[in-house]
Amino acid sequence: MALTSIQKAATLLVSVDSATAAELLKGLAVEDVEKLGLELAHIDASGGHNRKEQTRIVQEFVESLQQGGVQATNIRSFLNETLLSVVGEEKAEQIQAKIRKVTERKDPFAEIRGANLDELVVALDGEHPQTVAVVLGELPAKKSQEVLSYLGDEIRTKAICRMTNEESLGGAVKERIASMVSAKLRSLQGEVVLEKPGRREETLRKLAIMLGGLEKELRDQLLEEIKKQDEQTCTTVRNLMVTWEDIPSIADRSLQEALRSVDAKKLAVALFGAEEQVAEKIRSNISERAAAALDEESSLMQEPLPKEVLGAREEVVKPLREANEQDKLRFVSR
Question: Which of 11, 31, 65, 251 falls between 20 and 30 A from 234, CA-CA?
Fold first, then answer.
């Protein structure tokens, strides 16, 4: 079907940046801007643009300027920035309200899918597992994975269990959930910046090393204070005091004592794909008999799964952590 002029104009607008879109809209009647906003909401709710059609329209419009390529802009950013600059704050809010109503009727979760990761995580924080499960089920798979990586272990597990439950919710319930989460998202826009999970672990690792260098009595006292605030964080800090990567820095005698409690099969799995420095440190601190058993296990072993390797390494590190708790672990460097 041939596109209407409004559809063509909307397709063009999502192909340029917000500043250019604002220039193109200047001089248009407010009613026309509103129609364009509604069409943009329809494009967003339907899952995007026809790339071939989009390219053709853009090329028609900018052929005289000889611009190559198409750069799609974020539709929500366009509505937030462009409408405001063209029709003013009050009218822009009215248009946005109408657009939300139209969008929610067609797809209650459209606004949620368009939210950024930081806002989604904060909006779902503290919500019932069923709410989290419903929202995750409406997001694209990749975005669901990203949101899950930020959620706490307990809520993550409960939400996943809800998602696997065959019991289905009625449309009215899902609409209420969508409305509630959408309202929460609107209150958070532009105010949320999450710390990346890897960055938090890096911070806790620095804290763990710092605490590990203190006298045992003071270290335990500080850890107890952390535990009062957040038991899970305290456990993480304790574990990060001694990690697999620390093995080359551990004194030979301490490592030898710890390795005596690790069987050859588990050690073979742990050493699969290990860094050369770690592998050499371990091999140089086991007996000839233990080394022969390790080589035999390695030759018979099938390639382990990554989670099996990580689990085995945790088993190797466990006695080292226990020794550290008792203030018996010695480091040669760190």
Answer: 251
Residue 250 sits at φ, ψ, to 5 deg, of: -85, 140
Residue ranges, comma separated, of all CATH 1.20.5 domains in the chain are 195-241
What average pLDDT does the segment 60-76 reach? Answer: 41
Q: Would you say residue 197 has pLDDT above 70?
A: no
In single-letter form, the type of residue at position 237 comes to: V
Burial 141-171 (b: 16+ CB within 10 A, else e): eebbeebbebbeeebbebbbebeeeeeeeee
User: 124: number of CA atoms within 13 Å, CB side?
Assistant: 29
Q: If DSSP states are collapsed to H, E and C, what string results for 208-255?
A: HHHHHCCCHHHHHHHHHHHHHHCHHHHHHHHHHCCCHHHHHHECHHHH
Q: Which of 3.30.450, 1.20.5, 1.10.10, 1.10.357 is the CATH number of 195-241?
A: 1.20.5
User: Whole-number mean pLDDT of the chain?
Assistant: 78
Q: Please give the model's pTM, rounded to 2 decimal places.
A: 0.46
pLDDT band at residue 155 under the 50/70/90 scheme? confident
